[in-house]
Specification:
Layout: H1 2-21, H2 34-44, H3 60-72, E1 77-81, E2 85-86, H4 95-106, E3 113-116, H5 123-131, E4 146-171, E5 177-199, E6 205-230, E7 233-244, H6 247-267, H7 282-294, H8 297-310, H9 323-337, H10 347-355, H11 358-369, E8 375-379, E9 389-390, E10 392-396, E11 400-407, E12 413-417, E13 426-427, E14 433-435, E15 442-443, E16 449-456, H12 461-467, H13 482-492, E17 496-504, E18 511-515
Parallel strand pairs: 1-3, 1-4, 2-4
Antiparallel strand pairs: 4-5, 5-6, 6-7, 8-10, 9-15, 10-14, 11-12, 11-13, 11-16, 16-17, 17-18
């Protein structure tokens, strides 16, 4: 009996040796299969080990990007989704529901795509509508003009596979021995999804509006086995661990990628930007050319009317577009894009249209419609023949009313522009006005003097007449200093531009410097 116990102990020790050689922490880990599986699941739940063909694995951001892009470009469409089945019978996934979910994510804000999810799974709703005698959803005018159809078209098992194994045995196999072996295998399966769009009116395919994408599914496995025997009493040990990209995870990635591509092609928006690809990509350049050649004159006209309306160059009033208004809007769009105006829908225009950041385009248009008001005030060089006569120049950036005030060395403030010789305060954009404007002189003095000018979008003549009673070149008794003048303009013209120069000296000793406000 003691001999049998000793043999059993030797066998247990041998088994633990096999386990240790296999890289495990001890005999206790024989039952720990949960930890590595949970850790591997945490890695795999976000995406596949190998990238999707377009090297994009997370489509939440691209789907949101498409939502913003559809709204920016004024795109819209209505479509029905057919049952997107699995023709390979190897991937049991709700492909149709995944596509509908992707469309919902893609239109959160824009509501640009109207998706009709009619199919066999809406029998309850259809039956209820029949019972309620309500067939509004089946009116001919509500039939979507486009239909999405497709399926999982490819699933290749073990497209590439590599297996490696080895083993070692010590002792005589028929008596006392110790053996250990290990193996590892890696294989790749290929999964493909094909989608296309057809017209519901005649069941014809829409040329070029399709998506063909594939994903590689990586599978890996490790196996370890060991055996120890002493006098024909032995222990066998074997463990294996395998990991694999989820098939349905790959399908969801493919569906979301395909949805972005399909809707981008259908609505002709630069969907590639949402996938991190720019116009220099050869495939993108070729697709833009295809769109240019594939659109007829009427389709191009509708394409640009849609976009010019979306960015505010044409009114969105539901009325027919005025040809002259369209031509003027198109010319402005050419100018903003930096493309020479030709009056035609050229390939250069289409390329520039897709290359431009439309947010920047709209910002430029907004700035052009409401340009920033700036005012430049500068001291001119002193005329050697008139060293005591000081001259200035004032220039507004846009059409504006300009008012200038001089505070002399005695602390007296007077309006010097407009005046009795130059009665109009209105100055056109970027036109320089030299001061003094009239038959008077700004005389140099050793003590500091200040010239302060204001520009307002609209005329403040009447308001200033009330706030600053008195004529031109006359002391403004109500103005104690330039700070008080600033307060007056802040009250009558909150949106204004101002510039101030402080100066002193004469001739070669003349100095001038701009000061704040």
């Amino acid at each position: 009996m003691q001999s049998l116990i000793r043999q059993f102990r030797r066998i247990v020790v041998a088994a633990c040796t096999v386990t240790t050689l296999a890289g495990l922490s001890g005999c206790q880990t024989l039952s720990d299969t949960r930890t590595p599986v949970v850790k591997e699941y945490a890695k795999r739940r976000q995406g596949t080990m190998l990238p999707i063909q377009r090297v994009v694995t997370d489509f939440d951001t691209p789907l949101r990007c498409m939502d913003e892009m559809l709204e920016t470009y004024g795109a819209s469409a209505s479509l029905q989704v057919e049952d997107l089945s699995d023709k390979t019978a190897k991937v049991s996934a709700g492909t149709t529901q995944m596509f509908i979910s992707a469309m919902s994510q893609m239109t959160r804000r824009s509501h640009a795509i109207h998706v009709m999810a009619y199919g066999d799974d809406v029998k309850n709703v259809t039956s209820y509508m029949l019972q309620a005698n309500s067939l509004n959803s089946f009116k001919p005018e509500l039939v979507p003009p486009y239909v999405v159809r497709g399926s999982i078209t490819q699933f290749d098992d073990n497209l590439a596979k590599k297996t490696a194994d080895g083993g070692l045995t010590v002792g005589i196999a028929s008596k006392n021995f110790l053996g250990i072996g290990a193996s590892r295998s890696t294989s790749i399966n290929m999964l493909a999804l094909d989608l296309a769009v057809m017209r519901s009116g005649d069941f014809s395919l829409v040329p070029g509006v399709n998506s063909r994408n594939s994903a590689a599914i990586l599978q890996e496995g490790d196996g370890i086995d060991g055996e120890a025997a002493f006098s024909k009493l032995g222990i066998n040990y074997m463990t294996s661990f395998s990991k694999s990209d989820g098939k349905t995870t790959a399908v969801r990635n493919l569906v979301e990628l395909s949805a972005i591509e399909l809707i981008g092609k259908l609505t002709k928006v630069p969907y590639w930007k949402c996938l991190g690809v720019d116009e220099s990509n050869p495939d993108v350049a070729a697709e833009i050319e295809d769109w240019q050649d594939g659109m007829g004159g009427a389709e191009k006209l509708a394409f640009y009317i849609r976009h010019l309306t979306a960015i505010g160059l044409l009114p969105d009033d539901g009325k027919p577009t005025d040809p002259n208004a369209f031509k003027a809007a198109l010319r402005r769009y050419f100018d903003v894009l930096g493309v020479p105006f030709t009056g035609s829908f050229s390939l250069a225009l289409l390329r520039a249209h897709f290359a431009a950041d439309q947010n920047q385009v709209m910002a430029k248009l907004e700035q052009a419609a409401n340009p920033t008001l700036n005012l430049v005030l500068q001291a001119l060089p002193v005329d050697p023949g008139k060293p005591n006569a000081i001259r200035f120049r004032v220039t507004p950036s846009i059409d504006a009313s300009v008012y200038c005030f001089l505070r002399d060395e005695t602390g007296t403030t007077a309006r010097i522009f407009p005046n009795r010789w130059h009665t109009q305060s209105r100055v056109t954009a970027n036109r320089a006005v030299d001061l003094p404007a009239g038959k008077f002189t700004i005389t140099a003095a050793a003590a500091p003097q200040s010239l302060q000018c204001y520009a307002t979008r609209s005329s403040m003549d009447n308001a200033l007449g009330s706030a600053l009673p008195g004529g031109d070149l006359s002391p403004l008794g109500t103005v104690g200093d330039l700070g008080a003048l600033r307060n007056i303009f802040a009250g009558i013209a909150p949106e204004h531009a101002t510039a101030t120069i402080e100066f002193s000296g004469a001739g070669a000793a003349f100095t001038a410097k701009p000061v704040g406000g």
